[in-house]
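Quick illustration for those who missed Monday's session on complexes.
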Amino acid sequence: MKLLLAIVNNDDSAAVANNLTAKGHIATKLSTTGGFLKAGNTTFLIGTDDEKVEEVIGIIKTFSHKRKQVVGDETEFDFTLFKSVPVEVTVGGAAIFVLDVENFIKC
Ligand code: 2BA
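Prediction with 2BA bound:
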């Protein structure tokens, strides 16, 4: 068994969740925040059999889109605003970790 941790854009999370559930996969959604942009994103916890991992990744890939985001025009440090040169970063589709599960207990 594997545990997938998939970080997706908030705008894609409903489509990812709906399509995972429609295909019978069980997922838990967590509201998370990216360390770099400090913007909200969604982390899915998905426990699944080894042979279903590729299908799960396929669904996440299909419904997670790349986006350009501008960062760095204003940063706040200790209540002081600093202006810097805006930088464009590409965010997503999804960042996915696949972990081995030693044991899964449902009781
Ligand atoms: P954030 O940390 O807010 O990062 C948003 C986007 O900013 C990243 O998109 C990447 O394009 C850029 N970025 C992040 N750190 C950077 C840095 N030190 N220098 C320059 N650019 C940087 P993605 O790579 O698609 O990541 C989207 C979100 O997925 C991240 O949001 C973070 O929440 C998560 N994530 C990505 N890689 C991760 C990792 N190795 N470990 C944990 N979380 C990760």
